[in-house]
């Protein structure tokens, strides 16, 4: 099963690479333009949100670190970011995924509990659910990102069938 999950994540990284290539053709100012009712407000901001979610759920929550000890991307980092900075943040997300896969490779249904900001008691789930959530979360926001690009007047390539 581990080999299948590693290959699945390689496919995800290929679709992400196609999206990055497209976004590098868009002027930086447009990537920071707020598009109401989508993602986290802008293409850049939404991308950082996705990378931070991988890092949080697979790198922090899964290893039972306190939420307060996790560092999300700062407003200053986002405001001064370009696509290379987003790529760099996803490299950290990739490291979290690799570490997560190595640690939980034979424990996909083991319970993991940790604190979450929306409830008083620790919340529990499984490693398989955490991986599934982060991957589907990325594709949800990838759809928002390409839609934001369309709203800004750009025609994205197919980023699903690479």
Strands, total number? 2
Mean pLDDT: 92
What fraction of residues sit in β-strands? under 5%
* CATH class placement: Mainly Alpha
Judged by helices, strands and strand pairing, the structural class is mainly alpha
- What order do the strands of the largest sheet run in, or round the barrel if closed? 1-2
The tally of helices reads 6
Please tell me the total number of domains.
Answer: 1
What do these coordinates show?
This protein has 162 residues and is mainly alpha-helical. It has one domain (2-151): Four Helix Bundle (Hemerythrin (Met), subunit A) (Up-down Bundle), CATH 1.20.120. The chain is built from six helices and two strands. It has helices at residues 2-23, 28-31, 43-61, 75-79, 83-104, 127-151; strands spanning 112-114, 123-125. The chain has a two-stranded antiparallel sheet with strand order 1-2. Strand 1 (112-114) and strand 2 (123-125) form a beta hairpin. Helix 1 (2-23) packs antiparallel against helix 5 (83-104), helix 1 packs parallel to helix 6 (127-151) and helix 3 (43-61) runs antiparallel to helix 6 (127-151). The chain is globular. The chain starts with a helix and ends in an 11-residue tail after the last helix. The relative contact order is 0.19. The model has no long low-confidence stretch (mean pLDDT 92).
Task: Describe the structure using short key phrases.
two-stranded antiparallel ribbon, mainly alpha, single chain, 162 residues, Four Helix Bundle (Hemerythrin (Met), subunit A)
